[in-house]
Structures are given as structure tokens and as C-alpha cells.
Specification:
Elements: H1 11-27, H2 31-42, H3 46-49, H4 51-71, H5 76-95, H6 101-129, H7 135-163, H8 171-187, H9 204-209, H10 214-245, H11 252-274, H12 280-297, H13 303-317, H14 320-331, H15 336-345, H16 349-364, H17 372-385, H18 388-394
Helix pairs in contact: 1-6, 1-7, 1-8, 2-4, 2-10, 4-6, 4-15, 4-16, 5-6, 5-8, 6-7, 6-15, 7-11, 7-14, 10-11, 10-13, 10-14, 10-15, 10-16, 10-17, 11-13, 12-13, 12-14, 12-17, 14-15
Length: 400
């Protein structure tokens, strides 16, 4: 990340703590694998198991907007530290042996709270750190590091149970150690923060009023349905592979989620390079087409095709969030803090749409039917991406 960080050493070395914070953000996505793991351990229904992402992503609705307003009056480094400490507190609960469905929900709540603080402060900080025209590219690279944390939430449980014969719960102390190291690294790093001349801290009324703008409303709703689609695919994939092909959801099924998340991570790295040569909205449109094709491929009755389709879905999904976010911020930079909180509030889609998907699976008796939810989400995002309004706003400033 090309960051304005003054640590008295080389730029890359000073940016390491910031990258570590983005990796920690990925731990919040552990709610995906936790659905299938907790469903098996506590014998939950599809709908009940979706209370886990509802709790984790629901906290975004409660905190994102207030944190966006709060951030306008405080240093972003302080907020990053606060987010890491809240996340650490949540991870310590199962680490010390307190484990039930109730304490798991509390853990997910605290991890989600820490995650939203990190994302509200980290995403606009990336704009400060980016050269002109480089915001979308750098945000995609940052999402790649976040993806490393996300991938670990699938690989650690599989590695623990299949390779080491240990409990999947070992992920919690591993995450706790990493977050503690991140806190120490951020504390040791001096960060200079920049604000635009004449910038005014946002208020609640003025932030909500931004939704009156058609462009902002469309982009906010796109993030709502995108996060819901991503969480639905991540949480339902092990159940899909178990129902359709008889694969163990807690072991082999999680590898399907790992492949999806790995494709997400790889796609974000590739997206960072693509944005050097292609416009943001062009990459967004291509991603929508790949996503729809991948989601349709899930319905082909073949294990190989299902896995291949999940990989294509992950590649298509990869840059959707950072591109929607950066296109919106770049079009209206004077509202950076307000838009950051407002757009991240829409992550509540990750709590609501998986509940709809779980309910659909329960009512129809078919997990594949739940994949109609992310398919509908990407049909909407495609309509927004191909609309003249989005094209005009995306081209107001240089690509990336």
C-alpha cells in the first residue's frame, strides 16, 4: 500500500501494521464457515444457523453510521487500535474455554464490532494513502490482504480436524495471537493523517440525506445485496456439497468454501493489476457477467462443475465491493467519512439475505434453491453497473 506513513524507516516496512489490520478484518468473515461447523456441533436448522452471520453482520447496521460520524472527529489510528482490541476481547472468550451457542454468538458480535471499526477507519485511510487515480487499485490490493484472513477461516478448521486431529476451535487462539501482534505493531508505528482543506465532520442528518441522491442510493443498495450474496455463497456452499454430492460439510465441504474464498482473494490481486489498464466500471461489469455465469453453473449436476462454478463465482465476486466503494467515494470525495459509514452500514445485507436463503432452503427442502438469492443480487448489481448514471459518475475522475 502506497501509504503516507512515517515510521522512520522504509515505506514498505512502515505499512506492514496497516496490512496486518486488513488481514484481521478478514477474520470477521469466519462467520461463513462457522455456520456449517456450528450447525453440525449444535444440531441447528438452516435458519437457526444463519443467526451467526445475522449477529456478525447485523452489528454493522448498528455501528457503521455512528462510527463514520465519530471518525470525522478522531484519528484513524486510534480507531484501528480500538477495533483490534474489541476483536481481541471476542476471540478470548472461546480461547479460555467458554463455548456454547450463546457464547459463540457473543464472540461473533464482538468480532463483528471490531471488524466494523477497522473497516470504517481503514477504507478511507486507503484513499489518503493512494496516488491520484490509484484508489480503486490500492483498495483491491488491500482487500487481497483481507482475503488472506478470510481464507484462513476455512483452511484452519479443515487443517485442524483432517490433518492434526484437533478441534476446529483452535482458530480462535490463533486469531487472538495475530490480533495481539497487530496491536503491538500499530502502537509502534507513527502515522500521519491527511484531511482535505475545508473538510467538515459529518452529522447524522447530513449523512442519511445522501441517500436522496439516486447514485448514492443505487450504490448503497448494491453493497447491501453484494455482501448478502457473498455471505450466502460462503455459508451455503458446504451444505450444498453435502446435500448434492454427499460430501462431509464439516470437513470436505469446507474446502468448497475455501476454494470460493481463495478465488475471491486471487481475483482481488488480479483486479489490482487490471485496474492499471482498465476503467473501474469496466472491471465491475466483467465481474458481474462472470458472477452470474458461475452462479448458474452451480445447478449443473456434477461435482466437478459445481466446484468449477464456485471458483468462477469467487473470481467474479472478487472486486465488486472495493469497486462500488471506490467509485462512490471518488465521485464525491468531499463526503468521504459520511459515505464510508453509510456504505458500510449496508453490510447489514450479510445478516439479512443469508436468513432469507436459509429460510428458502428449509421451506423448499433444497439448498440449491438458496443460491437464487445471490443470483438475483447480481442481476441487480449488473443493472446498476450498466446504467448510464453509474458510467457518468465513474468517469468523473481517473480510473482506479
Amino acid at each position: 500500500m502506497a501509504s503516507r506513513i512515517d515510521s522512520g524507516s522504509h515505506l514498505q516496512r512502515g505499512a506492514v501494521p496497516v496490512f496486518m489490520a486488513f488481514v484481521a478484518m478478514g477474520f470477521g468473515d469466519a462467520v461463513g464457515p462457522l455456520v456449517s461447523l456450528s450447525k453440525e456441533e449444535f444440531n441447528l436448522s438452516n435458519t437457526s444457523a444463519q443467526l451467526i452471520p445475522f449477529t456478525g453482520y447485523g452489528v454493522f447496521a448498528a455501528l457503521s453510521l455512528p462510527m463514520g460520524i465519530f471518525q470525522g472527529r478522531h484519528r484513524r489510528k486510534s480507531l484501528v487500535l480500538a477495533g483490534l482490541l474489541v476483536m481481541l476481547l471476542g476471540l478470548l472468550i472461546p480461547t479460555v474455554g467458554l463455548f456454547s451457542i450463546g457464547t459463540l454468538l457473543v464472540t461473533v458480535l464482538l468480532i463483528g464490532a471490531g471488524n466494523v471499526i477497522l473497516q470504517v477507519s481503514g477504507n478511507p485511510l486507503m484513499r489518503d494513502a493512494s496516488p491520484p487515480g490509484g484508489y480503486a487499485r490500492n483498495l483491491s490490493f488491500a482487500q487481497f490482504f483481507k482475503g488472506m484472513g478470510t481464507v484462513s477461516s476455512s483452511l484452519i478448521p479443515v487443517g485442524a480436524t483432517v490433518l492434526a486431529g484437533a478441534s476446529w476451535r483452535i482458530m480462535f487462539p490463533i486469531y487472538a495471537v495475530f490480533v495481539l501482534l497487530s496491536v503491538a505493531a500499530v502502537l509502534r508505528t507513527r502515522i500521519r493523517e491527511y484531511d482535505a482543506p475545508g473538510r467538515r465532520p459529518p452529522g447524522f442528518a447530513s449523512t442519511v440525506a445522501l441517500l436522496r441522491k439516486r447514485f448514492v442510493a443505487a450504490m448503497a443498495l448494491s453493497i447491501f445485496v453484494y455482501i448478502g450474496a457473498e455471505v450466502t455463497v460462503a455459508t451455503q456452499t458446504p451444505l450444498l456439497l453435502q446435500e448434492q454430492f454427499g460430501l462431509d460439510a464439516g470437513r470436505i465441504g469446507l474446502l468448497g468454501t475455501a476454494l470460493f474464498v481463495t478465488a475471491l482473494t486471487a481475483g482481488r490481486l488480479v483486479g489490482g493489476f487490471l485496474l492499471r489498464n482498465f476503467h473501474s466500471n469496466t472491471v465491475l461489469r466483467i465481474g458481474c457477467i462472470i458472477s452470474i455465469a458461475g452462479l448458474l453453473g452451480v445447478y449443473i449436476p456434477s461435482t466437478g462443475m459445481a466446484i468449477t462454478s464456485l471458483i468462477f463465482t469467487g473470481l467474479g465476486f472478487a472486486n465488486t465491493f472495493p469497486l462500488i466503494f471506490s467509485i462512490t467515494i471518488r465521485a464525491m470525495p468531499e463526503y468521504t467519512d459520511a459515505l464510508s459509514g453509510l456504505l458500510l452500514t449496508m453490510v447489514i445485507g450479510g445478516a439479512l439475505l443469508p436468513l432469507v436463503a436459509g429460510f428458502t432452503a428449509d421451506q423448499t427442502g433444497s439448498v440449491p434453491m438458496s443460491f437464487l438469492i445471490p443470483l438475483a443480487a447480481f442481476l441487480f448489481i449488473s443493472a446498476v453497473a450498466f446504467s448510464p448514471l453509474t458510467r457518468l459518475q465513474a468517469e468523473r475522475r481517473p480510473a482506479g
